[in-house]
Structure formats: structure tokens, C-alpha cells
Amino acid sequence: MSSQPVHDGGELIPRPDTTFPALRAALARVAPSRLAEMTTERDTVFTMATQSNSFGPIAMFQLKWAAIIEIERRPDLARRLHSAERTAQDLPRDAPAWQAAMDEIKAVMNLARAEITGATDE
């Protein structure tokens, strides 16, 4: 029996706010294996922000993780991304399919960021 939830292909969870607690809670639901990575990165980013006296690193952290969650909460986007990642890992960099996979990864990431920021072309 699978431990993955059964769903109708729609969003797994609603889009969370971009606060750290909301992002962490959402990630725990859609990609719990990445929580340690997020926490480690958060600690690094907050140290950088303090040292530079800038909120820029924190804003970039929030956008990055909001985009990751946007992808993982939408099975259609997650399938596209993970398929392209597998292809890119399995092929030499000079293969045309490798470049196509990298273009797909970029397209999915750009779509997710646009959804988060409201900068869609629709």
C-alpha cells in the first residue's frame, strides 16, 4: 500500500503565505524530506541577512521555497519538474535532450515563481 495521498490531480494543499512558519508547514505536507535542507538554508540566510544588514537574502529564501512548494503542491508541475531533472541527470551535457530538460526545469521554475509573485501573462 502506498503512503502517498490519493487525489484528483488538483492542488494537494492551498498556496501558503510566504512567512517562514507557513512555508515550513506547507513543505512538511508536500515534501517533508526537504525540511532539514530548508532549515539549514534558513540559518545560513538569516546569518547573511544579519551580517549584511539587508532583508534581500531573506526575501530570496522565501521566494525560492515558495516556488518549490508551489511546484510540489501541484502534481502536474511536480511531474514535469522531476521528469526533466531525471532526464538531465541521466544524459551527457552535450546531448540535445539534456538542454531540452534544462529548458523544461527553467520553465517550471519560472512558472512557479510567476504564480507566487502574480506576474503571470494570463
TrEMBL record:
- Protein source organism: Streptomyces varsoviensis
Identify this protein by name.
Uncharacterized protein
